Amino acid sequence: MTTGLARSTVAGKVDLLLGSGLVVAVGDALSSGGRPASRFAFHPQARTVLAADIGASHVRVALTDLNGELLAEERADMPVAAGPEALLGYVVDSGKRLLDRSRHPENLAGVGIGLPGPVQHATGRPVKPPIMPGWDGFDVVGFVQQSLPSPVLVDNDVNIMALGERAGFWPDANDLLFVKVATGIGSGIISSGQLQRGSDGTAGDLGHVRAGRGQDIVCRCGNTGCLEAIASGDAVAQFLAAQGLDAASGADVITLASNRNIIAIQALRQAGRDIGEVLATCVNMLNPSVIVIGGSMAAAGEHLMAGVREVVYRRSPPLATTNLRIILSRAGDRAAIMGASQLVCQHILSPEGIEAELANLASAG
Fold first, then answer.
1. Residues 154 and 110 sit within 8 Å (Cβ to Cβ)
2. Contact partners, residue 334, CB within 8 Å, separation at least 6
3. Other CB atoms closer than 10 Å to residue 42's CB: what's the count?
4. Parallel, antiparallel, or unpaired for β 176-181 and 290-294?
5. How far apart are the first and last CA of the chain?
6. What pLDDT, on a 0 to 100 scale, did the predictor assign at position 228?
7. Tens-digit pLDDT profile for residues 201-224
8. DSSP per-residue codes, 96-107
C-alpha cells in the first residue's frame, strides 16, 4: 500500500474521518475482478472558518468553508489606531453574529487574522508595527480565544494576500511574489510552493529597501531613501499636493489619474518605475513566475503597471523574465479574506492537523 500502513489501520482512520464529516463516501470504483474499492471525497462544508482582514482603516470579517468559499461577511470602517481591543472586539462580535446565522455554528475550524504590520507568526503578536499604536506585543490569539475557543492564526496582511491570490487564481504557480502598494509597500513571497516568512517574520518588507531616486527623502521608519517614502499612495499624494493639486491620500491620486490629470498620471508611472527598480532585484534573486500587484493603489491600473514592467524587463536578465508575468491582482480587495481563510485551512488540513483531529475523535469515542 502507498501509505505503508496496515489495511486495518487505514480502515480505522477512514472510519474516523467519515465520523468527523471531513470526508464522505461517494460510491464504489469500477471492479477489476475482485471486490470494488470504496471511494471517498473531501467534504469542504464539514467545517467553517472565520477570516478577518484588519487594514489601516477597515475591518472585514467573513465566514467561509474549507475550500475558502465565501458564505457571509460583515465589514466596518475603523482605524487600526483605535487599538486592539476595539478592532478585535469587532472581529469577535461580528464572528459570533455570522456563526449564529450559519446552520452549524459549532463546526468552527478556526480563525485567521491578517494585520497591517509585522507579526511574529509563531505567537501571533504584532512586533513594533509602525501604523498600529497600542498593538506592539498584544496577545491577539489569547484575546480572540477568550470568546472563540478554537485555533487562531495571525499573519501579516501581505503574506495572507499572497496565500489568497495563489489559492484562488494561481494554484500551479510555485514561485509567486505578491506586492501590496497602498499606504505602505510590502510583499508576500511564495517560493517552491511555500510562504516564506524569514527567521523573524519580516521577509518581503520591500517598502524599506533603498531606492535610487529617494536618497534625501526621510521615511517614517527614520531612514532615508526607502521605496515607501517615494512610491506609496501617501508619498505620491504628498508629491502632487506640493505641485498644487488637491491630493491628501492615494485615493485622491487615483481620482486625479482617472480624470486624466497628466501630472498624476506621470507621478504614478514614476512610482511604478521606482517599484520596478526594487522588483528587478527580487526577480534576479527569487526568479518568480508571477508578480501580482495588489493593494489600493492597484486601482491605478496600467498607469502604475507600465512603469513597473518597463524597469523590471529592462533591468532583469532575459532568462529570468522569459516566462515572467506581471499582473494586477485578480482577487482585488478579497485577497486578504481569501488568504486568512487559507491560513486556517492549511493548518487544519495539514497532516499534523488531520492527525490531531483523528486523535481527538478517537479519544472522544
1. no
2. 70, 164, 168
3. 12
4. parallel
5. 27
6. 94
7. 889 999 999 988 878 888 888 888
8. HHHHHHSS-GGG
Q: What pLDDT sits at residue 151? A: 94
Strands 70-77 and 23-28: unpaired
d(CA 149, CA 122): 18
Where on the phi/psi map is residue 361: left (φ > 0), alpha (ψ -120 to 50), or beta? alpha
- With a cut of 70, list the residues of the chain below it in pLDDT: 1-21, 23, 25-38, 40-42, 358, 361-362, 364-365
Cell 449564529 sits at which residue?
100
- The answer to whether residues 281 and 317 touch, using CB atoms and an 8 Å cutoff, is no
Helix/strand/coil (H, E, C) string of 223-256?
Answer: CECECHHHHCHHHHHHHHHHCCCCCCCHHHHHHH
Beta-carbon-side half-sphere exposure of residue 34 (alpha carbons within 13 Å): 2
**H/E element, 186:** strand 185-191
Task: Count the neighbouring beta carbons within 10 Å of the beta carbon of residue 255.
Answer: 15
Q: Of 252, 248, 270, which Cα lies nearest the Cα of 261? A: 252
